[in-house]
């Protein structure tokens, strides 16, 4: 199966449209054709824009801007005007959204063309949708942003929005072998997204390169943050330990290879042990996530509980049993450590850490292990998955870089340079 049906990058598509060298809807048509060819095997979409709908769009609205003419997928917990939002719950009746979510509206204003809604796990939680991993159809693509990651990996779209509460952006990026970016909490507007966890949920995106992820960040994140890491020798804290997950030999070897490559390019890598803090943050994530998830989904359960999975109903019951005192205690842990970069990592610019314990596991009944993602979600720090190689069986390998709160653009800039080094050495 080809994984490069839509080979042009986000930046190349937009430049071609702005320069008049490509028709405004050319890439969108190519995207819809790629979806039609590959969707029966990948099953990444819950709704696809009809080809005829392109004829009703106004070309001038998409002929300019940073993302002119760029087709993009939208996770099915984020509203797109005139498309159904189904939340990955097939038994629910999905009504068409009246308006774009804020993030979708910003993309559209920059010239992008939403071509459909991508499959999500049920209410972005645990029960997987039908999506397959494009690299190995019998292996999970991860969750909950499975459709978005798989659609980019399969070449159906050059970019797609997802969300992360625990590991829902970074894990699918790792399993499907694409770049995945989760911004700092609160950095991207969430209006028009179904919130399930108020203090954790974050909108992110997938692309085939860090440069393309930066192009989308220019639209959705914007602003300026610290660029100090660009002006001096980088120091990276390498954190491998996790009390909830063991790192497989191939994933460990890939990170050790990365350390050697970075050291050869004068990047200082310092091993950091933070198992006590990691254990506390994993506990905080479990309490905060279940407490907030339960209260967000309780009204849905009350009205249409019959349409929801047993796993989701159990999660709501578990969360409702958590007391406000325990929740507040874990929110205080979250707040105390969220601004504790200096105490944990001293003078380091970034953290290098696994994205997952191992490549995508076999089977489609579970979305994989998020132990290496949850602590960064509860901290709210920005994360960038870099695909760097393949396992002996042909499954993607990679790692994530983590930045300090609010330093999203600096993380992307450093990640672009480092990814180039790591991919060069890995080829």
From TrEMBL:
Coiled-coil positions: none
Top class in the EC scheme: ligase
Keyword Transferase: yes
Top-level taxon of the source organism: Bacteria
InterPro entries for this protein: Amidase, Amidase_dom, AS_sf
Domain spans labelled Amidase: 29-412
Entry's EC annotation: 6.3.5.7
Ligase listed as a keyword: yes
Keyword terms of this UniProt record: Ligase, Transferase
GO terms of molecular function: glutaminyl-tRNA synthase (glutamine-hydrolyzing) activity; transferase activity
SUPFAM superfamilies: Amidase signature (AS) enzymes
Name of the protein in its database record: Glutamyl-tRNA(Gln) amidotransferase subunit A
Organism lineage string: Bacteria, Pseudomonadati, Pseudomonadota, Betaproteobacteria, Burkholderiales
